[in-house]
Design a protein that fits this description.
Blueprint (H helix, E strand, L loop, with lengths): L20 H4 L2 H35 L5 H16 L2 H8 L1 H21 L3 H29 L5 H28 L3 H22 L14 H16 L7 H23 L16 H15 L5 H9 L3 H22 L5 H24 L7 H30 L5 H32 L4 H26 L3
Length: 470
């Protein structure tokens, strides 16, 4: 039995008065939520953590020509791993899935710490990405089966807040290790933390067993999807002009092929109900993708702030954290909304605030920026971040509530992370292309990147409206 995805959830009681933070943050619920949140935090923090460590790593072991691959290898591996989350849950259950994810992440981190050269570091990043992709996907997929429905909205808000916290603390923590030349110890600490959480996961989910049912891997869907991501990623490194458009065009064709194959296959990456006429789950995923695209602006804020406003690295980094901080605060409040109408309004308002904030921020990239302008930047980035926070957790609940079938429901929840990671990688590649198009003029480069991303988030205003129709 299936039903259209709605922000209110299955019974309209998600986030109702029957759910309180005190209930969620007590007993077994707290242990479960700690595992869910820690897995996502390890993944999210690791992205920015490694970026801060890279100058020290290159200075120590060389391999600067492989610089971009340290991140690319991790993200691509994570995307692949996220596709197997629902299958692993159905087969082995949450406890085994989490232990496997944490241990794989720890092995990759330990390999990074021991790497004598960049080639082995990249191999370690692949292993770490496989573990990280599982952890990021499990963070949403397990909520549906491990917690009562009344807690879904708050748990989704807490888990998705980890993406913002990762952005806040990842660069700072990585910078501390880099400052003292301890990059190997940094990865050792990650490995130790992952092993500790593996023990907690085993204890928290010990009684949750899988069905033992093995589902075939959707190879026919996986191949065009990965090729599409690689093709669009290549657009950022080929010469500007027809090679760029060729790579992007090929990526869009492959994404179209992915959808065609998915609609006709028995084994799919996204739930089957995604492709059913009248079901709004597809619009939920597209809205999630547009919000994820907006998040990628954070990657460029410190760079533009230093070059345009002559801010110090510390102050520029704090400015970059404004969007995440607003995101975290907004979503912790929005999960308390109890009415269906209020939830629909929040989802619709989210992409609108995000797009408006980004457009304003892009247009305000001007020469001669002073302290007052930087304050205005912070204000519009706050608006943009609040837009993400308003919609994100409610969209997660909408996906989880799309079906009564546990297997399809688990797949629907896990696909949130898959959608998010794909959007991150594609937006990052397109942003690199837009920055290159700006040439040596940093004002032009900033406007191209920011307004280009705003164009992507603009789509979310339409899809959010469709996703929340009665």
């Amino acid at each position: 039995m299936t039903r259209p995805a709605t922000p209110a959830g299955a019974n309209g009681n998600v986030g109702s008065d029957n759910s309180t933070w005190a209930d969620l943050l007590s007993g077994r619920n707290l242990a479960i939520l700690t595992v869910l949140a820690s897995g996502v935090l390890l993944y999210a923090m690791n992205l920015y953590f490694t970026a801060a460590l890279m100058p020290s790593i290159v200075a120590d072991i060389g391999g600067q020509h492989y610089y971009a691959w340290v991140t690319t290898s991790f993200v691509v591996a994570a995307i692949v791993a996220s596709l197997f989350v629902s299958r692993l849950l159905d087969w082995k259950g949450a406890g085994t899935a989490y232990v496997l994810g944490f241990i794989t992440f720890a092995v990759g981190a330990a390999g990074n710490a021991a790497s004598p050269g960049m080639e082995l570091l990249i191999l370690g990043r692949v292993v770490q990405g496989l573990g990280g992709g599982l952890l990021a996907g499990l963070g949403y997929a397990v909520i549906r089966s491990a917690l009562p429905e009344r807690h879904w909205a708050r748990a989704t808000g807490a888990v998705s807040a980890m993406w913002g916290l990762g952005t806040l603390f990842g660069p700072a923590l990585g910078g501390v290790f880099a400052e003292f030349g301890l990059w190997r110890w940094a990865y050792g600490a990650l490995a130790f933390a992952a092993l500790a959480f593996a023990i907690l996961a085993q204890r928290s989910f010990g009684g949750m067993q899988g069905s033992g049912h093995r589902t075939a891997v959707p190879v026919a869907s996986l191949v065009p999807l990965i090729l599409a991501i690689v093709s669009i990623s290549l657009s950022s490194i080929v010469p500007i002009g027809w090679p760029t458009f060729t790579m992007i065009g090929a990526g869009l064709v492959l994404l179209t092929l992915f959808v065609i194959v998915e609609r006709r296959s028995r084994e799919t990456i996204l739930p089957h109900i995604t492709y059913r006429r009248g079901n709004s789950l597809k619009w939920v995923y597209i809205t999630v993708a547009t919000l994820s695209a907006g998040v990628m602006v954070e990657t460029f804020i410190p760079l533009f702030a230093q070059k345009i406003a002559s801010l110090t690295p510390l102050v520029a980094g704090l400015l970059g954290a404004v969007l995440s901080l607003a995101w975290v605060i907004a979503q912790l409040f929005v999960v308390s909304i109890s009415s269906d109408a209020g939830k629909r309004r929040a989802i619709r308002l989210g992409p609108l605030l995000l797009t408006g904030g980004l457009i304003a921020y892009g247009l305000l990239q001007v020469p001669g920026t002073d302290v007052a302008m930087v304050a205005i930047w912070a204000a519009v980035l706050t608006i943009a971040g609040a837009g993400i926070g308003l919609a994100w957790p409610l969209l997660g609940v909408a996906a989880m509530s799309a079906t009564d079938d546990p297997a399809e429901g688990g797949k629907a929840a896990a696909a949130i992370t898959t959608t998010q990671l794909i959007a991150f990688s594609i937006t990052s590649a397109l942003s690199g292309t837009l920055m290159a198009a700006g040439g040596e003029n940093v004002i032009d480069a900033a406007r191209y990147v920011i307004l280009g991303i705003a164009l992507l988030t603009l789509t979310g205003i339409l899809t959010a409206g469709i996703a929340t129709r009665r």
